Structure formats: structure tokens, C-alpha cells
């Protein structure tokens, strides 16, 4: 049990790292997709298409055994998993944020510009604070998906929950209790994470809006 | 000082044209607004009033035409110049466009902090002063969703005033308001006029316009068809279409001032 629980720390580290990377890249992608010039939109659309289209396991192997080795980057399996999960998540998150940006009235940007704000300032201070609030429900979806996807990192030998369960099960033949426990750990993590996001959503809610 | 600069042109717009595909929504519109003057745009909806106003501060980029502020031509392709110019041109929108995630106070403050780079203390003082000026002292900590339409529009006026604009563009500032809320916004605009603010306003409030305007411009199908002092425009306009429109408006809104 403690051995599996330690794995949940690794799993959480994977998820937090991937979501964080995905958040930063996802916001950049979303802003580019909405406000960028045509060449940038095309480029970003290709990115989204690629990372949403190729299966996770293929991407993990492609990057870890293929690309990183090819260009001579020597990184741990854990770092590779965070990067690949993060790159994939960025593609999904970009669409969540894009939806948030597009749901804002056009007048918000106009009013910011009319005050002499550059587009960059308007996006930073006016558009994103509102769009990100609207993105939290979609983001909690993405969290639960990444959480489960992170189990695939076991294929690279990252000692997260699934890898540990598999490792112990293959030696003790206690398959049912071990995989059951692993499943329960994922359920608990999903619950805690989505609950935390609900609390966040509540805390940043703009006063005066109906629920 | 005031009297000396009375006739100085603040804003000059020459032959502004805006097309969407082949349709000209603003046709060769020209106007000059002198210091302290109030010009009122009237005309049917879809006549190009709103587009003209938005072209003046380049929220909609015109296809042709030139614009001068205080004698200096504005080249909107120069970003820095464009942002400086927009600070000096206050814009009031029909549907307020307050920043929904910020309190009334923060709405007024944000451009002072991020655009004019004022210190926190100065920005706060200025924002509070402007909100008091439009009669919203008790509401500065409220969010837009907690304010009435009239209060929202007054916040947006305070937000524009805080930037020390040389001229204000008002795009049907009362059209989205209930009749009983119109008066409070008109009172604020009237006070601005009395303080000598230079303004260009599109409105259907014909009674209000005739009280306040130095000149009324009738706009239809993208062109400024006729212009003149309110007394002449409302009773004996030369153009038949202007007369017809004005008499309809007077019938509708004549008594709300």
C-alpha cells in the first residue's frame, strides 16, 4: 500500500507538470488562434491537429525513444512523460481557452482599445482574466483526462501508480486487489482535483452573476 | 484661456470612407469640431453613425480619409501614435462595454495604471474623483453585473473622463436604457457640455440634442446629408428627408430632455 501511495505522488507530479506546461502553451496557442495572423493560425492549427490526432502511446515512444535520442537530449523518463503529456494537453487546452475568448462580447476588446491599450495589454488585462474564468469547467475535464492518461507513462518505466501496481502484481500474482487499489487511487485523485477546481471556480466567480 | 481657444478645431475629419466588400457604409464624411463644441449625429439606424464614430478612433479602420487631432494628422499605422491618440479620444458605447470582471473603481483605474502608468495612489484618487463626478460614490466597489444600465453608462463615462480626453465620441449612449434611466445619463452628459467638453454624439434623443448641440448633422446611407444649427434642422431643414426624419423623432422623443 505505501508503495502504491508513493506512486500517487509521482502521478500527481506528472499531472501538475503536464497541466502547467499545457496551460502556458495552451494560452499562447489560443491567443494566436484567435488574434494571430493567418500564418500563425495555420501553424497552430497544424500543432493542434498533430497532438490531438496521434495516440498518446505513439507520441510517448516517438519523443522518448525517437526524437529526444535523435537530437541527443538525455532526459529522464519522467521528464519525457511530463513534456509529451504537456504538449498534448496544450492542444486540448488551447481549444478550451479559445472557446472562452470567443464567448466574450466583442465590445470588451473595443473598449480596451478605445482607452489606448495595445492589443497585448488588452489581452492580458481584459480578455484573459475573463476567458480563463470561463475555462475552468472545461479545464476540470482536461484534468481528469490527463490524470488517467498519465498512467500510460508506465510504458516508459516511470514509477507512477500503474507501474507500481503492475510491478507488484507481476511478482505476487495479487492482480485483483492491486489493480483495484490503483483504480481507487485514481478515483480519489480525480475527486480531489475536480473538487479543488470547483472551489477555485467559486472563489474567482465575478459577483453579480446568476448561477 | 477658454475664450481664447474657443474657435480652435480639436478634431477634424476629412472625407472618411468605409466599405464592407463593395458597400460603402460611410461615404466621404467630413466634419470639424471646435473646442467646446457639441455636434450631434442623427439619422436612421444603419445609416452609418456608429461606423463613422468608430472610424474616428480607428476601432474600425477607414478605407479612405484623414483625421487631425489638434492640428496633428493621425497616422494609424504607427502603433504608438494610434495608442496615444485613442487615449485622447474618449469613447462611450451604446452597450457600455464595461470590463465585466472588474469593479466600477477598477474599470476606471485600469487604463490609468496600465496605459498612463500612474502610481497606484494617484490612479485610485483620480478614479474615485471621476466616479464621484458622475454620482456613483456609493457604488465604486460594485461589479458591472450589480449595477443598473444607467449606472453602468455613468461608470463608462467616468472611465473615459479619467483619461483626460480632448474630445468625446458618444455612440447612442442612452439607446440601451430604460426610459427612466435615460435622464440620469443625460444629466451627466449635459454637465459635461456645461464644463466645456468637446463632443460628437450620435443619438435619437432629439429634444436633448436640440438643447445641447451647436450643430446637428443628419446622416443617411453613410453620407452626412445636411448639417446646421438645431433650430433650423428641426423645423426648416432644406432636405425633405431630414425634415421627415426630424418630425418623426420629435413626435417620439420630443418631450424627453
Task: Explain how this protein is built.
The complex is a heterodimer of chains A (211) and B (257). With 211 residues, chain A is mostly helical. Chain A has a single domain, classed as MetI-like fold, CATH 1.10.3720. Chain A is built from 8 helices and no strands. The radius of gyration of chain A is 20 Å and the shape is flat. The model of chain A has no long low-confidence stretch (mean pLDDT 90). Chain B is of the alpha/beta class and 257 residues long. Chain B contains 9 helices and 10 strands. A 6-stranded mixed sheet of chain B has the order 6-7-8-3-9-10, sandwiched between helices. In chain B, strands 2-1-4-5 form a 4-stranded antiparallel sheet, covered by helices on one side. In chain B, a hairpin with a 2-residue loop joins strand 1 and strand 2. In chain B, helix 4 packs across helix 5. Chain B starts with 8 loop residues before the first strand and ends with a helix. Chains A and B meet through helix 5 and helix 6 of A and helix 2, strand 6, helix 3 and helix 5 of B.
Amino acid at each position: 500500500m505505501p508503495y502504491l501511495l508513493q506512486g500517487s505522488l509521482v502521478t500527481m507530479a506528472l499531472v501538475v507538470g503536464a497541466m502547467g506546461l499545457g496551460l502556458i502553451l495552451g494560452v499562447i496557442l489560443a491567443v494566436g488562434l484567435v488574434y494571430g495572423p493567418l500564418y500563425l493560425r495555420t501553424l497552430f492549427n497544424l500543432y493542434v491537429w498533430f497532438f490531438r490526432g496521434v495516440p498518446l502511446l505513439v507520441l510517448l515512444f516517438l519523443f522518448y525513444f525517437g526524437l529526444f535520442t535523435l537530437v541527443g537530449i538525455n532526459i529522464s523518463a519522467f521528464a519525457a512523460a511530463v513534456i509529451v503529456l504537456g504538449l498534448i494537453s496544450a492542444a486540448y487546452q488551447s481549444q478550451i481557452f479559445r472557446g472562452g475568448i470567443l464567448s466574450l462580447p466583442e465590445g470588451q476588446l473595443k473598449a480596451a482599445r478605445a482607452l489606448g491599450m495595445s492589443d497585448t495589454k488588452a489581452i492580458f488585462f481584459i480578455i484573459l482574466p475573463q476567458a480563463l474564468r470561463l475555462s475552468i469547467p472545461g479545464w476540470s475535464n482536461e484534468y481528469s483526462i490527463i490524470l488517467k492518461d498519465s498512467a500510460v507513462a508506465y510504458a516508459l518505466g516511470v514509477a507512477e501508480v500503474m507501474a507500481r501496481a503492475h510491478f507488484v502484481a507481476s511478482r505476487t500474482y495479487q492482480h485483483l486487489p492491486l489493480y483495484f487499489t490503483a483504480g481507487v487511487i485514481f478515483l480519489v485523485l480525480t475527486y480531489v482535483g475536480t473538487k479543488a477546481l470547483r472551489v477555485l471556480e467559486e472563489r474567482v466567480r465575478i459577483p453579480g452573476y446568476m448561477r | 484661456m477658454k475664450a481664447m481657444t474657443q474657435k480652435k478645431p480639436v478634431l477634424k475629419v476629412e472625407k472618411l470612407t468605409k466599405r464592407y466588400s463593395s458597400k460603402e457604409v460611410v461615404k466621404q464624411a467630413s466634419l470639424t469640431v471646435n473646442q467646446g463644441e457639441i455636434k450631434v449625429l442623427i439619422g436612421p439606424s444603419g445609416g452609418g453613425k456608429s461606423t463613422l464614430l468608430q472610424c474616428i478612433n480607428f476601432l474600425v479602420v477607414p478605407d479612405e480619409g484623414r483625421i487631425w487631432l489638434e492640428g496633428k494628422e493621425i497616422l494609424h499605422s504607427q502603433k504608438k501614435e494610434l495608442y496615444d491618440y485613442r487615449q485622447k479620444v474618449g469613447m462611450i458605447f451604446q452597450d457600455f462595454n464595461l470590463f465585466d470582471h472588474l469593479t466600477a473603481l477598477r474599470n476606471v483605474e485600469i487604463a490609468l495604471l496600465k496605459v498612463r502608468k500612474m502610481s497606484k495612489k494617484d490612479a485610485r484618487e483620480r478614479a474615485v474623483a471621476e466616479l464621484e463626478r458622475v454620482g456613483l460614490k456609493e457604488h465604486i466597489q460594485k461589479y458591472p453585473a450589480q449595477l443598473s444600465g444607467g449606472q453602468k453608462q455613468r461608470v463608462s463615462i467616468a472611465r473615459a473622463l479619467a483619461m483626460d480626453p480632448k474630445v468625446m465620441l458618444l455612440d447612442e449612449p442612452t439607446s440601451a436604457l430604460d426610459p427612466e434611466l435615460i435622464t440620469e445619463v443625460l444629466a451627466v452628459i449635459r454637465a459635461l457640455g456645461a464644463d466645456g467638453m468637446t463632443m460628437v454624439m450620435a443619438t435619437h434623443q432629439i429634444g436633448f440634442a436640440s438643447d445641447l448641440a451647436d450643430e446637428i448633422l443628419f446622416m443617411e446611407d453613410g453620407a452626412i446629408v445636411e448639417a446646421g444649427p438645431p433650430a433650423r434642422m428641426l423645423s426648416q431643414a432644406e432636405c425633405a428627408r431630414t425634415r421627415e426624419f426630424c418630425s418623426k423623432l420629435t413626435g417620439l422623443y420630443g418631450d424627453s430632455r
